[in-house]
Design brief:
The structure is a single chain. The protein contains 3 helices and no strands. By secondary structure, the protein is mostly helical. Helix 1 packs across helix 2. It is elongated, with a radius of gyration of 15 Å.
Length: 72
């Protein structure tokens, strides 16, 4: 019998397609949606609840860069 290739779990990375730190575009890549939608939702969340800005910077520190992308 041929061994099946182990499927790696899907990981979230910051994307090099970034405006600030690549957090929103990394989340968009993970969920396979347009980064603009994630950015707009993040801004609305930040305006409505105020914690979005702090959460963004925490994500910026915690989420690693995508090793498969070229960073400038």
């Amino acid at each position: 019998m041929a061994k099946k290739k182990e499927k790696q779990p899907k990981r979230i990375y910051r994307s090099s397609n970034r405006i600030l730190g690549g957090v929103c575009s990394g989340i968009a890549d993970y969920f396979n949606v347009d980064p603009t939608i994630v950015r707009i939702l993040w801004i609305l969340f930040s305006l409505a609840y105020g914690a979005g800005i702090l959460l963004y910077f925490i994500c910026w520190l915690i989420i690693p860069k995508n090793p498969k992308q070229k960073w400038h």
